[in-house]
């Protein structure tokens, strides 16, 4: 058993690593410090308030406003709230179709502060949707853009994986009506590929329990029905996607021996293999739910495949230039209209995004190049297909890019911690 | 002894400050390295913290708090440095391993674990790094960490909890079979 399997001794593991690491790297340049301090004058003692007063900064002091002011402010807030409800309630917000192109709305993301935030790309304004002391991560918006699910850490430690078990939460996209959708999931890592909305937004599928007892469960968002547990025959499910119509869920399943793609009825019946055992990465279902893009990797060649979900017919789009020993492709994602793919291309020691027609054709490199590592690259098209959003784990940067590669990208705020979710809205009538 | 040196340095005795700085610089350097993961920037942060310590020493009210006070100056210098560096291109220090040494499976595993810990640590926000380094490297009890950083004890606890959880998540993610598949060609 390695150290990561014993949650109670992780702090000593980190402590030991810090002590060992510090031994080799501690800089020590006293002469340079003393050269500078010899010519530096000291501040007079009286210039610091703390020198005279016992300042306790860990105690937060709140000013006591006058009661009259409180009442006035309260009345204003209530009046504004009532007005807002009346205005908002009087409007009818059309919803976007459950799949295909839609208008770009807010970008919702998990921040490095472990809260959920929203970014309005048009104004550059960010707002905090879900804040507090809990650790919240990896929001995923519903297809109609009105709700968001996200992972929240619990204090339960998974005895198999050794990580903190997350639970799945749901909220309105404005951050209201936050509630738990599941209990603590037997899952060491909360990953985007472990959760999927049904296209009508009424259900959420979530996978958990890698290792001894993998689970695929379907929860009803309004809690009106019991969760459906799906027998996945011991395969750990990931890259979950509902097919349009919500009758089937497509997923990648793996165990210690092999990896396959499957489809299963949302009621848990009819598990079938789409792609037989393969070695590779990624999975993205086309917007119409008929084709699945994935990668195979033989140790030298990384090739994007497209497989027909119903017939299992597998094709390799002919990109120009094609994948080769020096040019490997990975992690393809479909455009909302199903005509293009965005994917990661590895050239020697560099990684960069490419966009190419899904039917094959010239690939267009877009965005910055990154040094390769085992870090993740996450990318997706905007709902209207006019932009590509990408987050690089390698340096933590997030970009909005031109899929045609004609203009330079825009880098988003640095506190975005991982994958993002772009809100779909209805096009104006 | 330290108290006397602090009192003398506070009155402008540079030799006394040199002794204090000489005694502290090794730990400060290690702390800065751990927070910044970059030798040059760690050196800059230590220099800035000690220069500031010298300049502001007369304003230190309690000489017995010198150590905690200098560490607070250092942590602030490191946090400033991290925020400044994040606006510049990404660079890493590379350890050169002696390839003539025989490798054992355990060595490789330990190196992989260290690499994962390193990557997990780099992903922490500066405030979480500070709590972890002060508590798990300098062995300061959490109330003292909170006092050094001038944050409430509950905040120190939650930053420690979140930081360790994030590091653990990095290890767990790398340990998952799905991620063990090579995703790129050999460099």
Question: Secondary-structure map with pairings?
Answer:
The complex is a heterodimer of chains A (429) and B (187).
Chain A: H1 10-25, H2 30-38, H3 49-52, H4 67-90, E1 103-111, E2 116-120, E3 125-130, E4 136-141, E5 147-157, E6 164-172, E7 179-180, E8 195-197, E9 203-208, E10 215-220, E11 228-230, E12 236-242, E13 248-254, E14 259-265, E15 272-275, E16 280-285, E17 291-297, E18 302-308, E19 314-315, E20 319-320, E21 327-334, E22 340-347, E23 350-357, E24 361-362, E25 364-371, E26 377-381, E27 388-392, E28 398-401, E29 410-411, E30 416-425
Parallel strand pairs in A: 20-24
Antiparallel strand pairs in A: 1-2, 1-30, 2-3, 4-5, 5-6, 6-7, 8-9, 9-10, 10-11, 12-13, 13-14, 14-15, 16-17, 17-18, 18-19, 21-22, 22-23, 23-25, 26-27, 27-28, 28-29
Chain B: H1 2-10, H2 14-36, H3 39-56, H4 66-85, H5 105-122, H6 126-137, H7 142-149, H8 153-175
Overview of the structural elements:
The complex is a heterodimer of chains A (429) and B (187). Chain A is mainly beta and 429 residues long. In chain A, 12% of the residues lie in helices and 41% in strands. Chain A has a 4-stranded antiparallel β-sheet, with no helix packed on it. A 4-stranded antiparallel β-sheet of chain A has the order 4-5-6-7, with no helix packed on it. Chain B has 8 helices and no strands. Helices cover 70% and strands 0% of the residues of chain B. Chain B is elongated, with a radius of gyration of 19 Å. Chain B is mostly helical and 187 residues long. The relative contact order of chain B is 0.10. In chain B, helix 2 packs across helix 4 and helix 5 (105-122) crosses helix 8 (153-175). Chain B has helices spanning 2-10, 14-36, 39-56, 66-85, 105-122, 126-137, 142-149, 153-175. Chains A and B meet through helix 1, helix 2, helix 3 and strand 21 of A and helix 2, helix 3, helix 5, helix 6 and helix 8 of B.
